[in-house]
Amino acid sequence: MDTDADADPDAGAEATPEPTMDVDTEELVASLTPREENRAIKSYQNTVAVACPACEEPFDDLVVCKGNPTSLNLSKQLDLCVGVEGGRAFIFPHRP
Ligand SMILES: [Zn+2]
Asked: How far is the CA of 13 from the centre of ligand 1 (A)?
């Protein structure tokens, strides 16, 4: 068999990975304290100083976006780290 993988049009399509963060988000969420949930978002408080998967500094809250697109209506200017997993956006606000 002299098959060239690059010549197969299906090979490229199947190789496209789902975007995932390099962390176990279920485990991450399980260590946080749930705060509020509505149709668009679910938020958690980081009471145990879990490290942010993006910058490794402890974040203050986690906001998981359930709607797409979603408006966050932030009342303050915050530094944000963002990750995507399973089609959901995870937002990690850092307060100065
Ligand atoms: Zn961060």
From this structure: 32
- Measure the CA angle with vertex 29, ends 56 and 23; round to 5°: 45
- Cα(95) to ligand 1 centroid in Å equals 10
Mean pLDDT, residues 11-29 taken together? 78
In a domain, 5, yes or no: no
The rounded Å distance from CA 15 to ligand 1 centre is: 29
Task: Give the total number of structural domains in the chain.
Answer: 1
Q: What is the pLDDT of residues 67-96, one digit of tens each?
A: 889 888 878 888 999 999 988 999 999 988
Q: What is the extent of the structural domain holding 55?
A: 19-94
Locus of tokens 């509505």: 38
Whether residue 13 is contained in a domain is answered as no
Radius of gyration of the chain (CA): 18
Cα of 63 to ligand 1 centre, how many Å? 13
